[in-house]
Fold Transmembrane protein.
Amino acid sequence: MSAIASKYVQQQPPPRAYQPSNTYRAIGPIVSIGAASVVASYVYTQLHSESATMDRFFASYHTPESEASRQRVFDGAIEDPRKNVLNFLSWK
């Protein structure tokens, strides 16, 4: 290139490395926190509904007949299932 032509050609600055803006940097943590909170709220809801279901089940089971059956087991009229050979994990 001649000296005259180089005077009129603008020099391009060297290419800069890509610098993401702060908005793009914040998207990852926002998505992660959002996903974790969705999972946590789902687990909380499921545990809460299961707890209510179990409470209703045990409340309906708490009858005089079930209490009499439980009393027979623990008084020894029927062998205690906790002392069964198959229940070896609870042995101390």
